[in-house]
């Protein structure tokens, strides 16, 4: 087995070195900014009455932001706004995407912090169980996007990091990715990195994540088997009757995602698996 991938190793660039140019205004309280090609939803520096949490929605391999659009819209509600984060999935290493996502999250977190150490109170979290009601940055990630997100949040401190929901995550790798790597691995680095073999990138990631994590797995997933979805230290786990991608078109999944972001657990205990019986890496 290869050496574990460290939890740090990326040095943040100073905020002065990040080039930002104003873009379109997304709402009365969220202003968009462009950061290295991504549209960054950031807090308006002039609005001190902001009470919004942001959910960064990350897609998986071989897809784009558009596949996450229905889910992103369904999870929005008063006090909770979504933002689609996209990246080119097939060729660059997962670590490259993770560093880009970390820069994105870090810049947004710095903007929240610029409002002061107390910060505004979030109307979404006031309805839930988080000890702090300050505005938070949540993450919802699908498939390989879950691995990108796990690696990103391990890069450094993110003071406003909230909770994370992983949808069909290949936390222990994927046999399909391993097969694909035999044919296309010389072209597609991520297929090698997502293999279920013991020396793959995903198998060497730190197990623990510095925030509450909930996992939603798809019962009929032919790409990521159930045994691969568990994660050590996760707060809750849910299996739904869906396939790898139909998971993203389920309003039920959207509602359960919101429930976890708000309270740190999924709503229905009747269809929740026993955490002690879930294999984790």
How would you describe what is shown here?
By secondary structure, the protein is an alpha/beta fold. It is built from six helices and nine strands, in the order ββββαβαβαβααββα. The strands form two sheets. It has a six-stranded parallel beta sheet with strand order 5-4-6-7-8-9, with helices on both faces. It has a three-stranded antiparallel beta sheet with strand order 1-2-3. Strand 6 (137-142), helix 3 (144-153) and strand 7 form a beta-alpha-beta unit. Helix 1 crosses helix 6 (251-263) and helix 2 crosses helix 3 (144-153). The relative contact order is 0.15.
Topology record:
Layout: E1 20-25, E2 30-35, E3 38-43, E4 53-58, H1 69-75, E5 80-85, H2 94-113, E6 137-142, H3 144-153, E7 161-167, H4 175-184, H5 189-193, E8 212-218, E9 236-240, H6 251-263
Parallel strand pairs: 4-5, 4-6, 6-7, 7-8, 8-9
Antiparallel strand pairs: 1-2, 2-3
Helix pairs in contact: 1-6, 2-3
- Characterize the main sheet: 6 strands, parallel
What characteristic shape results from the CA principal axes? globular
User: Residue ranges: pLDDT <50 for 5 or more in a row?
Assistant: 7-50, 116-126, 129-133
Question: How many helical elements?
Answer: 6
Percentage of residues in strands: 15-25%
Give, in spatial order, the strands making up the sheet with the most strands: 5-4-6-7-8-9
Structural Rg: 18 Å
Helix content: 10-25%
Average residue-wise pLDDT: 74
Q: Which structural class do the helices and strands define? A: alpha/beta
């Amino acid at each position: 087995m290869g050496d574990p991938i460290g939890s740090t190793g990326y040095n943040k660039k100073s905020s002065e070195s990040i080039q930002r140019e104003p873009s379109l205004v997304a709402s009365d309280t969220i202003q968009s900014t462009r950061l290295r090609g991504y549209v960054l939803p950031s807090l308006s520096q002039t609005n001190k009455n902001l009470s919004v949490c942001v959910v960064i929605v990350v897609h998986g391999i071989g897809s784009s932001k558009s596949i996450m659009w229905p889910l992103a819209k369904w999870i929005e509600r008063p006090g909770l706004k979504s933002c689609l984060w996209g990246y080119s999935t097939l060729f660059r290493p997962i670590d490259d995407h993770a560093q880009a996502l970390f820069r994105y999250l870090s810049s947004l977190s710095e903007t929240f912090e610029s409002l002061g150490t107390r910060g505004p109170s979030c109307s979404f979290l006031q309805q839930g169980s988080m000890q702090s009601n300050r505005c938070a940055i949540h993450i919802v990630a699908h498939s390989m996007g879950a691995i990108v997100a796990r690696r990103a949040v391990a890069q450094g401190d993110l003071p406003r990091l909230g909770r994370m929901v992983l949808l069909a995550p290949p936390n222990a790798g994927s046999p399909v990715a391993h097969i694909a790597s035999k044919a296309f691995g010389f072209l597609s680095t991520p297929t090698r990195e997502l293999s279920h073999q013991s020396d793959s990138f995903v198998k060497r990631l730190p197990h623990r994540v510095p925030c509450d994590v909930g996992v939603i797995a798809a019962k009929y997933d032919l790409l990521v088997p159930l045994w691969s979805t568990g994660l050590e230290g996760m707060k809750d786990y849910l299996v739904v009757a869906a396939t790898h991608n139909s998971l993203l078109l389920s309003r039920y999944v959207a509602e359960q995602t919101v429930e976890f972001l708000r309270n740190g657990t999924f709503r229905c205990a009747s269809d929740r698996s026993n955490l002690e019986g879930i294999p984790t890496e």
